[in-house]
Design a protein that fits this description.
With about 425 residues, the chain is an alpha/beta fold. About 55% of the residues lie in helices and about 10% in strands.
């Protein structure tokens, strides 16, 4: 069995015990044929952990958990537990690469799981063992930001911001880092949604372009409209699986005017609005997702991106009418929080460069009275990213990343399932 730091051993053993103890009433866990049941796998996991089994035994167990996780007809909770079992088994096997992939997959698919904080802690440990300090810190930040009441939050906070030997440096650092979490920590100021006692239940997902409007194009690649629709359908499935109501502005290849898209959000009583797009740039090296909110453009490129997505919105005077609503009607700060959550989870899910959250006057977002964001999933004009955007597996990652960001925002507000 590979050697782990004591804290990692404690976390691993707690995870093993939790999986074994959470099986009571787990409907649909037992399957016939070649697929082992969740009860059998959890029992084997506990036995192997207590007997210090060899790495190859753990690798076999991870493969068995993976087979169960991908078996058809499983209840969501059983599939969730099986996926977590994959990650834990790979950690025990000593295969850091496989463990990182499995744990990343788990937290992307199940960001609200009761084991998400454990998975992030194990992920941070695996990155530390591999010498990946940036990724380690990213996992720790996600614990602090997404799971402030977790037993791991204080350790994560201390690892990210250790006390400095230089009092002056410590004073400066204290002004920029978040407060250390504790059981009696004061609650953050409520958001607008929380203050009004509103729940987030309905999300409008808007696949950009469609029909006669192909959006961004590149030789030998699917059009933006097709990529956006494919990811949007997957995103809707992810959100519905978490109990949210999802409305789509289109679910086939049809043209929908920009003004009609946000009108749908209003008429359906949307609580959130997320529009999906694919980027285009003269610079073929540009790559990575970026998430936008409706606000006056701060630079020439932001204005150009908005202008490209606003094609077909109407005359200049009509656009001016939209823009006049911007400051009074758009929930800018709430939208920024939503966009930051989506951007962070999208980068974590794909490993793509982080291009950040940006601002411009996108017509599809203007006038909405709910938090909203426009997500550019990547650059069709980048050779590598254009290829990835054509692949089903990468589209799944994109959908899970956007879903994780939305769910992170939902959990931070007064969501009542």
């Amino acid at each position: 069995m590979p050697k782990h730091r004591p804290s990692s051993c404690v976390v691993l053993w707690a995870c093993v015990c939790a999986l074994a103890g959470a099986l009571g009433g787990c409907a649909g866990a037992s399957l016939t044929g070649q697929t082992a049941s969740l009860e059998d796998l959890a029992a084997r996991q506990r036995l192997y952990a207590s007997s210090h089994a060899e790495p190859d035994v753990w690798a076999e167990l991870a493969a068995d958990f993976e087979r169960l996780a991908t078996a058809p007809g499983l209840p969501r909770e059983t599939r969730e537990r099986a996926r977590f079992g994959v990650g834990v088994a790979y950690v025990y096997s000593g295969d850091a690469g496989a463990a990182v992939v499995a744990l990343n997959d788990f937290v992307s698919r199940h960001p609200a799981s009761e084991w998400a904080d454990d998975a992030l802690r194990l992920l941070a440990d695996e990155h530390a063992r591999a010498g990946h300090d940036g990724e380690r810190r990213q996992a720790l930040r996600r614990i602090v930001n997404n799971h402030p009441q977790s037993p791991h939050a204080a350790d994560a906070w201390a690892a990210l911001w250790p006390p400095s030997a230089d009092p002056g440096a410590e004073e400066v650092a204290a002004q920029t880092r978040p407060r250390m979490p504790s059981g009696s920590a004061p609650e953050a100021a409520p958001t607008i949604v929380q203050e009004l006692g509103l729940g987030i239940r309905t999300v409008v997902v808007d696949p950009g372009h469609g029909g006669e409007d192909p959006g961004a194009t590149a030789a030998g690649r699917p059009h933006e409209k097709d990529i956006a629709l494919a990811v949007a359908i997957r995103l809707a499935e992810e959100l519905r699986a978490e109990g949210l109501t999802v409305m789509m502005t289109r679910d086939v290849d049809v043209f929908v005017p920009l003004g009609s898209r946000n009108a749908m959000a209003v008429s359906h009583g949307a609580d959130l609005f997320v529009s999906l797009h694919v980027n285009h740039a003269e610079n073929a090296e540009a790559r990575g997702p970026e998430t936008w909110i409706a606000a006056p453009a701060r630079d020439e490129r932001s204005a150009l991106v908005a202008a490209r997505e606003n094609l077909g919105a109407g005359s200049t005077s009509e656009l001016a009418d939209y823009v006049s609503q911007l400051l009074s009607d758009t929930k800018t700060e709430e939208s920024r929080t939503l966009a930051e959550a989506i951007q962070a989870e999208l980068v974590a899910a794909t490993g793509a460069p982080d291009r950040g959250v940006k601002e411009a006057g996108f017509v599809v977002l203007l006038g909405l009275r709910v938090p909203s964001a426009l997500v550019e999933l990547g650059f069709l004009t980048n050779a590598d990213e254009g290829r990835l955007l054509s692949e089903e597996a990468y589209r799944d990652k994109l959908a899970r990343g956007v879903a994780a960001g939305i769910l992170r925002y939902v959990r931070s507000n007064a969501y009542i399932p």
